[in-house]
Amino acid sequence: MRSVFVKIYLAFMVTALVTTAVTITMAAYYRQWSNDSVNLIAPTGGYISAAELILQQGGEPLLLEWLLRFERHPSVNAYVFDAQGLSLLPNPPATVLDYAFSADSYEAQVNPLSRSEILVKAPIESVQGQVYLLVVEFMHPLVVFNLPAYLGWGLLASFLIFAVWSLILSGYLTRPVRYMQQTVRAFANGDWRARMDERSLRRRDELGELSREFNHMAGYIERLIHDQKQLVSDVSHELRSPLARSTVALELARLDAAPDQEEHLDRIELETQRLNEMIEDLLNMAKLDTQQDHSHWGDVHCDNVLQQVVEDARFEHPDSVLNLTLSDGLPPVHGDRKLLKSAFENITRNALLHTVEGTSVDISVRLKNDGLRIVIRDHGPGVPEDKLDDLLRPFVRAETARERLGSGHRGFGLGLAIAHRVVSHHRGRISLKNHRDGGLMVSIQLPLMA
Predict the structure, then answer these.
(1) CA-to-CA distance for 320 and 314, rounded, in angstroms?
(2) Of the four, 145, 313, 366, 444, which is 20 to 30 A from 350 by CA?
(3) What are the residue boundaries of the Histidine kinase domain, all occurrences included (predicted)?
């Protein structure tokens, strides 16, 4: 059981039900631990006087009528025995008979847990001098109320009352935790402006303090990330000018260069071109991190985009084999066609660079879990398991990739990082996994409605 809400809710419910059970149990002993017994015995003097007066005025018939009316009382009964020990009412309870014929004078008997909670007896005398015995029985409330039904309805009422109250109280206590969970998830997914709501911040307990500390931490991290992105963007822009001047100087140097210097100048041109490409990738990443305008987005048919990517890749790598498998009736996704195309191109080029010679790059597109699933797989050496997640970060490459890439290949560890930013920008997910038969498999899940 991992839910804090469920734990708190069950704790309240168990506490409430235990309290109810203890209260009901204590009610059974209530008269034994209080002065209610004395208070109940006190009015029996009136019952005795009334019974004797009725007996003297109307004899046994009137007394019997009084007893029959008395029987309808829910919690008090009266019984009269004649000189021969016969009851005027048929079938008196055994507890009443035992008490009536007991030898212990006329003292009241208190039995807090039996059917007869209190028994009081006294002699009454007729006009003719005949002596009768009057027994007054006070029924135990739990017997009058039907103990099983009393316990059942009491527990049911307590359960319903405390269930609603515990639900409200548990929701109140855990609401900031649930909201914080949503906020942390949004923050982890790249929404750096996610913050706790004002209602949680106004709380004066530990949860309110935690909410305020989270907002402080989130603000600090947001500033750090913003400053880092701004630094990358500024440095990339500043590097453009000296590189442009280097390109001009390189062309001027070619005019006066000797034939044996051409090789070195070509090398300088290649490295300058690679620096320009890297700066362009960095600027694209910085743009993806700051771009929030989706007004230009539209329906993008990923199958058509991938067909174009495959055609371009086959033109650039005529000796490579690319297999594209498309499911029928693929719906479009909402997004930026240019960005998605760049992401697919980066992953496909990366796969072409690392697949073993004579093997293919396999691309498939199908519907899965209310979204579009695109899988691009190469047949290369794969990547160590502990490096898979790191490949989605900028400037990270597997050691096998560094060995395979020659000096003429473009590879700065930015291709997968850019693709990751593009997919995240479209509210999608990208994951890397080594295929069981060898090679790296890149899976992209795009929602149909981003």
Answers:
(1) 7
(2) 366
(3) 234-450
Domain 295-447: assigned CATH number: 3.30.565.10
Query: How far is Cα of residue 37 from the mean position of the Cα atoms in its chain?
Result: 54
Dihedral (Cα; 266, 269, 275, 276), 10-degree rounding: -140
75, 139 Cβ separation under 8 angstroms? yes
**DSSP element (H, E) containing 139:** strand 131-139
pLDDT at 27 over 80: no
pLDDT value for 407: 42
What architecture is domain 36-145?
2-Layer Sandwich (3.30)
pLDDT in tens, 260-298: 778 878 788 777 777 777 677 666 666 666 555 667 788
Q: Report CA torsion sign: 283, 284, 285, 287.
A: positive
Which helix (H) or strand (E) segment holds residue 174: the answer is helix 147-188
User: Helices 302-316 and 337-354 sit at what angle, rounded to 10 degrees?
Assistant: 40
Q: CB neighbours of 163 closer than 8 A, spacing ≥ 6?
A: 13
Q: Taking residues 180-204, what's their average pLDDT? A: 83
- Spell out the domain ranges in the chain: 4-30+148-179, 36-145, 189-292, 295-447
Average pLDDT, the chain: 79
- With residue 419 as reference, give the H or E element that holds it: helix 415-425
* Cα–Cα distance measured from residue 28 to residue 75, given in angstroms and rounded to the nearest whole number: 15
CA angle at 265 for the pair 259 and 271, rounded to the nearest 5°: 160
Q: Which letter does DSSP use for residue 427 in this model?
A: T
Q: Are 392 and 432 in contact (CB under 8 A)?
A: yes
3-state secondary structure of 370: coil
